Amino acid sequence: MFVQIENLKYQYKNSSEPTIKDFSLEMEQGEIVCILGESGSGKSTILRLLAGLETPNKGVISINGKTIINDHQFTEPEKRGVGMVFQDYALFPHMTVAKNVQYGLRKMTRRQKQKRLDEMLSLINLTDYKDRYPFELSGGQQQRVALARALAPAPSLLIFDEPFSNLDANLQVKIRDELRGILKQTGITSIFVTHDQEDAKVLADRIVFIENGVVSRVGPPEEVLGCASLIMWANS
C-alpha cells in the first residue's frame, strides 16, 4: 500500500476525550479518498496529523514505503513529502502567481524552476496569469494557483481541507470537476476532508465516513452515500 495509517489516536490537551479514537486507512498510489463527516467529527485533525502539525498519542503513518510517525519516530513536516491545500488558499498576497507557485522549489536551479512553473501553469490553464497578484484573481483562479503551488514540489501525498468552502455554488461545481481531472492526470495520491456529500461523490474513488473520531463506513461513493445513517444525517 502507498499510504498506511494504523490505529491513530489523538486527544487535544484541553479535551475530555480523544478527538481521534482509532483511525486506520490504506490507500493505493494515485487514489483519491474523501474523509466525510460532520463538523467536530475529527476529519481535519487527521489531516493535521498527516502533515505533522500535530503528533498522535498513538499510531503509525507510512507514506511511499517510509514510516513518518510511530511510537519512536517523528519526521518533521517539511521532510514528509506531504503537500497541503488550505481552506483559505493561503497564497502570499505580495507575490505574483509565478512566485507563489515557485515558492516550494528552493532546491531547484533557475532553469528547473522555470520548467516546473511552465508545467504547472499549463496544467491549471493559467499560463497568461503568471504576473498577476492574488487580489487580481477570481476565487476559482486562486484555488487553482494554490493547487499548483502544492503540486509543484511533486509531493507523495496531497491533502485538502474543505477546499471549496469559499467558492459560490456554481463555481464549486466547475472547480471540483476540474480538480478531479487534474489529480487523475498527475496521478497524485490525495485525501480530502469535507462535510459536503456532493463534493465527496464527485471527487472520491473511496469515501471514509467518520463519526466521533471513529471510522463507521468505508467504500465507493455510491455504496457509502447510499447507507441509511448518511441519508438521515443529510436530512437532519
From TrEMBL:
Entry keywords, A to Z: ATP-binding, Cell inner membrane, Cell membrane, Ion transport, Iron, Iron transport, Membrane, Nucleotide-binding, Translocase, Transport
GO MF annotation list: ATP binding
Keyword Translocase set for record: yes
All residue ranges annotated as the ABC transporter domain in the record: 3-234
Pfam family, one: ABC_tran
Keyword Cell inner membrane among record annotations: yes
Domain of life: Bacteria
Name of the protein described by the UniProt record: ABC transporter ATP-binding protein
Annotated organism of origin: Halalkalibacter kiskunsagensis
Lineage: Bacteria, Bacillati, Bacillota, Bacilli, Bacillales
